[in-house]
Amino acid sequence: MNLCEKCNQPNTGLDFWCQSCYAKCFQQDFKNWASGNSDMFYELLKNNGRVDLQIKEIVVWDYLIQWGIEQSQKISVKSRSEWHNNNYEVLKETLRLFIPLIRFSAINMTDFIERVCPYKTIIPNNIYVETLKFI
């Protein structure tokens, strides 16, 4: 069995590092991992890889929102306080495949209210209503 290049613990088969070191690196650099490639980001969410990598769901949500804004050239106003309905519609369309993959029930109530609720209009109603049952 190979040893992790970072901590010399047994390598679990994830590149050259053990799962713990891989998760730590991934968390510290999540923005770069998530921002470069929509297919990779989608697969990470779809395959529930963030559980193995110990990433909190609210962190995934925050980066998803940031990524969605960066992907859309139609959202020229970066401050959400200055947004109009059209900005939310553009973001909703940009993230339509990703939002169903977010595990909203894994987000605590405070984070949900403060960081998810401001974007309620981009979340499909059935998902939003279902989430409210769990928080």
UniProtKB/TrEMBL annotation:
Organism listed in the record: Glomus cerebriforme
Designated name of the protein: BACK domain-containing protein
